[in-house]
Amino acid sequence: MASLLIGTIAGPVSAQALLIPFKKTDPAQATLRFSKLRTASWQGKFKKGEKNKIKFALAEYYLQVNDLFDARQSLEEYLEDKSVDVSMLLANIFLYKIAENQKDEQRMVQLKKEIFNQKFILLFDNYKKVSYSSLSGNEYDVHYFVDRIEIFINGNAFETIRF
Amino acid sequence: MHSKPSVFKAIVAISVPLLVSFGLIFIFLEFSTFLSLRMAKVLSAALGPGYAIGRVGNTSNHAIRLEDVNVSVGQWPCSAQEIEIKYSLRNILKRQIVLTSVVVKSPRYMRGLPVEIPAQQDFGELFRKKIYPLPSGISLVIHEARVCFKDLAGTVPNFLMQGYDENFNLGFCVDKKKKQFSCQGKVHLSRPVQNNLPQIFKFSLKAEAVGPDLLTDFKVGYGAYTLLFSGVVANFLHAPKFNLQFNSPLMPLVGWKFFNNIELRSGEVSLLGRITGPVTDLNLHTEMIMAAAEAFIDDDVMSLKDFSLRSDYAFKTAQLSVEHFQATVDDSILIEAGGTLKNLSAPEFDVSVKLKEITEEDPTKKRDPFFVTVQGQLNRPLRQARGEVSLVWPGPGLRRYICTFQNVSAELKGEKEDRHIVSLVTDKIQLMVQDFEGEQWQTLQGFDFDRAVFAAGFKGKHTYIDRGEIEGYSGSVRIRGSVYLNRQYSECDLNIDVEHLNFAEINVLYPVNFQISGIFNGMVHITMDNGLVARGFFMAEHFSLKSFQPLEKTAEFLGINSIREIKDAQILTDFHLSREGSEIKRFDFDNDTLRMRSNFQLNKEGWLEGSMAMSLPRDVLAESKIFQKLMAIARQRDEQLDFVVRLSGYLDSLRTELVESELRDALKERLSTGIQQYIQDKINQAIEP
What we know:
The structure holds two protein chains of two kinds. Chain A is of the alpha+beta class.
């Protein structure tokens, strides 16, 4: 039942999967959670401030099932809302990974500029750390260095992006 | 024996009539010569003083041929080898001889005769009845005659090329009865003609009056080139108004040369246009189109594509207006131009040229155009020009950069070492940054330099700047080197020396407002290596910087008044700038408040990596309550405090890391992580826009 549902909503599956260390959950539970989130999104039934979080969580779900087409669409819609928290950076990084997967170098250059668009001063440490918890239960840690960004998902190193 | 007398008789019988005949003919010829000369004298006398006819030859019924006719009446002395006149005596009782045909052969007139386009009444005169009263009381009437001039030769001065006269040879007929006019002839060019082109212009014209209008066909030929005209001269008798169209078949331009060093080696041009207006105010409209051409400029090849020229020439005011000119040079630059050229003897020009670079990646994607405006006057023999030149570069958004040369005097100095030498002197150079605000251009920033002198040589696409010197601000900028611009590859080797430019409290309004003073010296070497590459160094002495907002904000935030403005500093920078990536190898800053050593690298994507080592006196930092407190916590007692900072990121979002600082290290030992985080957050909040 779950695989049928995924097959229906997920669209074409990319040949090369993105290896993202998302939290391992029971597929049936994940599908149920996704279904609830999608319904909430469609019906506009969400708590104040949760709208973006729902969109991000939906994108996570698509990435989890390696539906890069819907993941990309969902992330781009998410970025339209101009959130100010670190999830914007994460959305851009996921889009960057999708572009890398699809060998879209032009898009990668554009996204890199978005990823490195924050200016800051480091006085006492050589990086600053920002965390984010998604509605899907994934924990993100972002380490901002002056020359790179390191992303950890659920405690596991996911990506280091340098210029 | 009987045969001899009969033979003799026969000989006599034959020879006597022959002799008599020869005798009679001789007498007749002698008489006719006498008669011819006598009649010539009679006729000359009958025509009055100023007319001299050599002889009247071979007269017949109602026809007379006058030979060696000379007329020295009025201002136009002239002569003719022969005039054949046919006449009718039907009005002889009215004491009129009606001429039915006049053919004037080889007429000549004195050199220097002014040739003018016939005035309004003169043109109609061709077909009007004319009566010439003779002193004898008899009048000559030309009404329905055919009047022809054959082999009319003369000389006219060339109104375009002073000092050159053109010889012409033409014949024309006016058939007054049929109201037809025809003309054919040729002009021999006396001035030197290049390109191995023929020195003869040929032309033929046919015109026929239809009611008040004149229908015309006109053909001009010049070697392989032919122009065909056709049209109407409306109301040609009273107020002629022209409406003539002309066109040409494709005309080959191979072998054409310009300015001694440009030679076309391919290209075909087609021409069309019209001549309109009253005879006193004629206008020539011309359109010239050429798909592609290739030319040699000295040893270089230059391609020309999509060439088109639309112009108007007003004969009355002698003004040439170029409505539109367009050409693509070497597939890389689109040139568009327009303007006027007045007074051809000492041409005054006012021309605007627009240059657009066509990128190789996408020919349809054109960058913003670069404008050149030139106004002035050319002096004969077209080797000197005076005027004003304006160069306008487009900037981002509604911004532009202008360089104006005032009172420019340019002169072609001839050739030296195969180069065409040009000298240029200008009284003033103005550099401006302008923004379009409130429907007009506002000057944001301006620099005025005084006299500038340039001596340059040109060979093909090479420009050699032998001397370039711009004076101003108590100093000078010297330029020397060469530039070679070609589609396949370009070269540049320019040395620019800046000497003692003394800027005193210059208000810089762009890119941000501030005020600077200082004495600047430096050197830049510009070369070409996949784009322009600039290497060099600059030094500034007694440098001061005021009203620089970022510095004021920093000073305000830190509470250090001493760094609100920079006073009496020395700056030294050593740089290498290129499209592939730039490097500020050294940017040193020294004054009483701050000592700094820094270097930066900027790659072609706009990512900067750099490091800065700064040293500030304790007294300066102590102006700030925050630093005072932090130094007390850190128990820092040194007179100078040093900081090493690393910079990284895109220019508009730089990330900074304090890499080395004894003060920071001491604070780290004494402050809790929470306080450290608080200080860092506060500073980061302060740098937010």
